[in-house]
Specification:
The structure is a single chain. The chain is mainly α and 114 residues long. The protein has one domain. It is 58% helix and 0% strand. The chain has six helices and no strands. Helix 1 packs across helix 4, helix 1 runs parallel beside helix 6 and helix 2 packs antiparallel against helix 4. The chain is globular, with a radius of gyration of 12 Å.
Length: 114
């Protein structure tokens, strides 16, 4: 359960970095992309292959609905999963060389993400 929560948060972070597209990306896809980030954001391992997932999610989220979907998924995960280091999760895009137009945080207004 903790692993899934952490993955969802990581996925949401990555999706938030992605450009807009027509079809929204589901939380399941976000979790798949961000699964390699789980050890890092839960303080149990190194960054490892996380950036590949972050960049893949960024590339997949091409529309505004995609980005908003990823943002909402990450936001939900960030606010519901207590084992994730929110500072590390928020810093993932920058560490992986991806720039997103919002902060990965439980307080982010995903409706304003473009």
């Amino acid at each position: 359960m903790k692993l899934i929560g952490a993955l969802l948060i990581a996925a949401a972070l990555i999706a938030a970095v992605a450009p807009p597209s027509e079809a929204a990306i589901g939380c399941g896809a976000v979790v798949s992309y961000l699964n390699p980030c789980l050890p890092y954001v839960t303080n149990k391992g190194p960054l490892g292959g996380c950036c590949g997932g972050i960049k893949g999610l960024y590339g997949a989220a091409k529309t505004t609905p995609d980005r908003q979907s990823v943002c909402n998924c990450l936001k939900t995960l960030a606010s519901s999963y207590k084992g994730v280091n929110l500072g590390k999760a928020a810093g993932l895009p920058g560490q992986c060389g991806v720039s997103i137009p919002y902060k990965i945080s439980p307080s982010t207004d995903c409706s304003k993400v473009k």
